[in-house]
Amino acid sequence: MTTARTSVTIGGREVGPGAAPFVIAEMSGNHDGSLERAEDIVRMAAKAGAHAIKLQTYTADTITIDADTAPFHISDAHGLWGGRRLYDLYEEAHTPWEWHEPLFDLARGLGMQAFSSPFDASAVEFLDKLDVPCFKIASSEIVDLPLIRAAAERGKPVIISTGMASVGEIDAAVSAARSTGNEDVLLLSCTANYPADPRESHLRGIPVLGDAFDVPVGLSDHTLGIGAAVAAVALGAVLIEKHVTLSRADGGVDSAFSLEPDELAALVRESETAWRALGQPRIGATAGEAEGLRFRRSLFVVEDVAAGEVVTAANVRSIRPAGGLAPDLLDVVRGRTFRCAVERGTPLSWDLL
Questions:
Q1: Of 217, 223, 246, 307, which residue is least crowded by CB atoms under 10 Å?
Q2: 101-135 residue pLDDT tens
Q3: What range(s) does the AFP-like domain occupy (predicted)?
């Protein structure tokens, strides 16, 4: 028996429907092998308003092996990394482990959370010693249940991306995390294609994930731009993860689908706007519309009239503001007579007729 969770807490911040979307800036390999550039990305993310910076913790040797056979090559048809050896790609994209602590310290000093995706048990242990507030399990690792259990055993929230996963695989991953007694699980809807076609995002699955597994749900988004991410908020996404870079023109393994500084700032701003716009499931005038209610149309006397005059289209009309009889009563009052003199600009009422 599990306990339904509507939110989790990451570094003291609520991540759930009661808070603005938690925006994670994923650095991945966009540091291009430069610690200075990595630090600039952290500063950029903080300036843009991101709530967290995320790294990836692996080496080429912990994530694969140095092999040149067909299974260890990305297919030639891949739009971004076609034909490359896995080992070479990961060697280029990895973040040196000795960079983690200074980058985390920099992020925390700028008011952001800082954490990473571990890709093996040694990375979990390493990150835990750096006191990360949570762990993120990448889509391809959702089937590595020992890795998920190793992360969940640390007693910190576990964020699991679900790209490519079946419902059964997601259930196994969530169950693996909960088997450790850790109920702080958050799922991310994800399309593990780089870049992803928005038509393959299937954002309507977000509430389905939440209902099926009693967890908060976010979006790990690899589409271009911020449209899909903002739309996800309307469907209940409580967290948005996007890859970021200083400039796509600079190149880098993930730059083609990464957000630039202005786009990241727009994501933070517009995702919060979308969340605030959700409001409550209610219909009717709001407090802010009180003044507008005064300027609805109603029936007014629009010419000075004397007692005994007949109501006509010339002396009574439907105009703004409110205060008079309803516009739909115009045909009812036409032909009646005024019982007293009435000045132009007076709201029509039954006692005048």
A1: 307
A2: 999 999 999 999 999 999 999 999 999 999 999 99
A3: 298-353
Which one is the CATH code of 8-58+94-278: 1.20.1440.20, 3.40.718.10, 3.40.1180.10, 3.20.20.70?
A: 3.20.20.70
Q: What is the pTM of this model?
A: 0.89
**What are phi and psi for residue 52, nearest 5 degrees?**
-155, 155
Q: Parse the chain into domains and list their residue ranges.
A: 8-58+94-278, 287-352
Q: Is-contact 225 9, C-beta < 8 A?
A: no
134: tokens are: 């949570």
Structure confidence at residue 92 (pLDDT) = 87
Q: Whole-number mean pLDDT of the chain? A: 95
Give CA 274 to chain center in angstroms. 9
Q: Band the pLDDT of 3: cuts 50, 70, 90.
A: very low
Encode 239-264: b = buried (16+ Cβ within 10 Å), e = exposed.
bbbbbbbbebeeebbbbebbbbbebb
**Whether the Cβ atoms of residue 298 and residue 306 lie closer than 8 Å to each other:** no
Cα R_g (the chain), whole angstroms? 30
Its CATH architecture, for the domain 287-352, is Alpha-Beta Complex (3.90)
Q: Is 284 exposed, middle or buried (0-12, 13-18, 19+ CB in 10 A)?
A: exposed
Query: Long-range contacts: 120-129, Cβ < 8 Å, 24+?
Result: 120/58, 120/62, 120/63, 120/147, 121/146, 121/147, 121/150, 122/62, 123/57, 123/58, 123/62, 124/150, 124/151, 124/154, 126/57, 126/97, 126/100, 127/57, 127/100, 128/154, 128/156
Cβ contacts of 252 within 8 Å, gap of 6 or more: 29, 30, 31, 32, 245, 258
Distance CA 210, CA 254 (A): 29
User: Which of 77-91, 145-159, 243-257, 285-299 shows the lowest per-residue confidence on average (mean pLDDT)?
Assistant: 77-91
Residues 296-303, mean pLDDT to the nearest whole number = 98
